[in-house]
Design a protein that fits this description.
Radius of gyration: 18 Å
Strand content: 15-25%
Shape: elongated
Distance between the termini: 23 Å
Number of strands: 8
Strand order of the largest sheet: 1-2-3
Order of helices and strands: EEEHEEEHEE
Helix content: 10-25%
Length: 141
């Protein structure tokens, strides 16, 4: 199995069913089947109306301590776009349950006054039936 993580989907080709996948980079891949893993767009309307800053990746902008632009208000999970100390302070927003689970721990510690940055390395693991496995550590920046 090959993952083309730096390329993006341009289009599918075929008559009645997909026969080829074409990427924006010009790669053409024959295909008998296509599996799509789509991300999420968090619903930040309430956060916006409450005056919280929204980041470039569509999440609630937070410090490395997961505190929003309004002191005392924290965010976690898919909606949290935080300054990742693991990635040199760059803002990231990651859509995975393990990240949300660990965000909750960091946010709780900071609500209790511990002043700790979120330092967990993002991670997930997937098995694609008999095709292979994918282990992901870090964040796409």
């Amino acid at each position: 199995m090959t993952v083309h993580a730096e390329d993006e989907l341009e289009r599918f080709e075929g008559s009645g069913r997909v026969a080829k996948v074409v990427t924006r980079g010009g790669l053409e891949l024959a295909a008998d089947a296509v599996v799509i893993g789509a991300g999420v767009t968090p619903d930040v309307q309430l956060a916006q109306k409450a005056g919280l800053e929204i980041g470039e990746r569509g999440g609630v902008r937070c410090s490395s301590r997961l505190e929003s632009s309004v002191p005392g208000i924290y965010a976690a999970g898919d909606i949290c776009e935080y300054d990742s100390v693991v990635h040199g302070g760059q803002p990231v927003r990651i859509e995975h349950w393990d990240v949300a689970f660990n965000h909750g721990k960091t946010a709780a510690l900071n609500m209790l006054g511990n002043d700790v940055p979120h330092e967990e390395v993002p991670y997930f693991y997937s098995v694609f039936a008999d095709w292979g496995e994918l282990e992901y550590v870090g964040a796409c920046l």
